[in-house]
Structures are given as structure tokens and as C-alpha cells.
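Subject: for your reference before the review

Hello V.,

The reviewers asked for a structural picture of the protein, and I figured it would be easier to keep everything in one thread rather than splitting it across files. Below is the amino acid sequence we used in the manuscript, unchanged from the supplementary table.
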Amino acid sequence: MIFTLKEKIKISVIAWLVTSIFRLWFLTVRVKINNKDIYDEYFKQINGKKRVVAVSWHRHSIFLFYFFRNLGDRLILISRSKDGEITAGVAKRLGYKPVRGSSSRGGAEALNALINEMNSKDKTYLCGTPIDGPKGPARKVKKGMVILAKETDSYLIPMACSGTRVITFSKSWDKTILPKPFSKVVVGFNTPRKIPQTLTDEELETTCLQLENDLNALTDKVDDICGYTG
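And here is what came back from the structure prediction:
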């Protein structure tokens, strides 16, 4: 999209404001990490170079977006839209490198850009994005991030979060949750997996279904821990 100078300034100011609010809001939130060994090895990168594709439901995206702000090289897929421009501005301020596109707009181009970016680097890369986004249906896996993990020989890691006290955007398609200030958030991870390079189309469908079941189970688990019922 092409923006006027006035629009660019407005987007930049909004992105700065949103980032500032994020930092102040979530600074008060206490975080517990389930399966911390997975987080330490595959996200903090304490054991050498690894490529990781981390996937979650769109419902979790706001807090997880903030949670990964302090890690190394991070890519994030963001839609091509005016709202996406603001989100990309926030992402840059949190240390991400945005790649623009979505399953509905520029999806194939964006996926290829992610593949090329991750394969061109001689260093650790983390790519994370909601795997049912940007428009759903909720909690249904789309294939793009599985293909990304396959084509970049990355570890595919499901992740989810929930909170003891949250705001639920009940009218949104994904039922987005936002932890309230001074609440507790639980972040959980499932076992990392590699996607075989020889994966057939039929096996891809099976892998997506297995991932969907795993991610739903993980989401239910962190919800149970936090006592969240939606």
C-alpha cells in the first residue's frame, strides 16, 4: 500500500503509542512458563544454532507478540493492510523483522519471502505467527507455517498462553484474550518436531490435523491451569 506523508506520520505515532502501552501494561503481568526446558533450548538458543517456527492460535497473539520481544533474530508475518502497517511498526519497535502478506493477500509471496529469508541466514532465526489467521476459522490449522518449517528444516513448536484474569474479545472471530494488569499468564509449549522433506500432500494433511489436535490440547491445558473458561 502507498501512504501519504501525513498517513505515514500518523501510523508512526500510533505504533509508538501502542508499543508504549504494551510495555507499561504487560510489565505488570507475572509469567509462568510450562515446559521451560523447551523454551530454554529452542527459544533462548542456549545450545547452538537452531531455526524455529513457533505457531499458536490467533487468540493468543497479543501477549505472545510481546512475550518474544527480547529474543534474537525474529521474523513475523503481518498482513498487507492499514492496520497491518501499524502492527508492523509495533513489531519493529519490539525487535521483529516484519514480512508482509497473509493467506488472503500476498500469501504465496509472503511464504516464499519467509522461506528465502530463513534459508539465507547463517544464524538462528525464529519465525512466529498465528496458524489459524488472519481470518480463521478459529483453531483450524492452515498449511503455510508447516510448509515453512519443512522448507527451512526448522523445528515446528506449538505454543499457547492463558491468564488468570483476562479480557476476552468475545465478538472477534478468534476470541482474542488480553491479560489484565497485575494478572498471571501461563505460556506453554509442546514437543518440537521436524517436518520431513519428503512429505507428501496426504502426509501434509495428516500432519496439519495432528498439529491442530496438539495445539487445541495445549490451549485447553493452559486454560485449565489458569481457570479460564472463555
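For the response letter, the relevant points are probably these. The helical segments are 5-26, 36-43, 61-67, 82-93, 107-119, 144-151, 201-226. The first strand starts at residue 30 and ends at 33.

Happy to draft the paragraph if you're swamped.

O.
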